[in-house]
Design goal:
about 140 residues, alpha+beta, 3 helices, about 25% helix, elongated
Length: about 140
């Protein structure tokens, strides 16, 4: 007694149908990777130069990376502190409140680096952040 009630035509069409559905899903998956990442509005912008971690310079001032620093590359993937050794470029960052160490770093793409972003807490306090457009404007 047969357990499967599929006809021969349905068995032959199943692989073609699977292939067709996977081809339709591929563009949708590609669109997901093209979304702009959202940088937290409470971060500041700066120029980071990393020597041998944890030693670094932020806006030409000596600073150290926190022991549990979170570094997100320009592709938004987490990086280890050893991977960022020798890096020089624009970043958004957060500092630890008690120690002043760098606790979070976002390595910026050229497009993100060209956008207006506050570099000091005083600028962040006076500028206006638009959460819909995801950008800062000066008053």
């Amino acid at each position: 007694m047969p357990r499967c009630s599929l006809t021969d035509a349905a068995r032959r069409a199943a692989p073609a149908l699977t292939l067709m559905l996977s081809c339709l899903a591929a563009p949708a998956l590609a669109q997901v990777t093209q979304l702009a990442r959202v940088l937290p509005p409470d971060t500041l912008r700066g120029a980071l130069v990393v020597g041998v971690p944890p030693e670094a310079a932020l806006n030409k001032q000596a600073i150290r990376l926190a022991p549990g620093v979170r570094i997100r590359g320009s592709n938004n993937m987490l990086m280890l502190s050893g991977e960022i050794g020798g890096f020089s470029g624009k970043v958004n960052y957060r500092l630890e409140t008690g120690t002043g160490l760098l606790k979070e770093i976002w390595v910026l793409t050229d497009t993100e680096a060209s956008a207006l972003w506050p570099t000091t807490p005083q600028e962040a306090a006076t500028w206006v952040y638009d959460p819909i457009a995801l950008r800062w404007t000066k008053p």
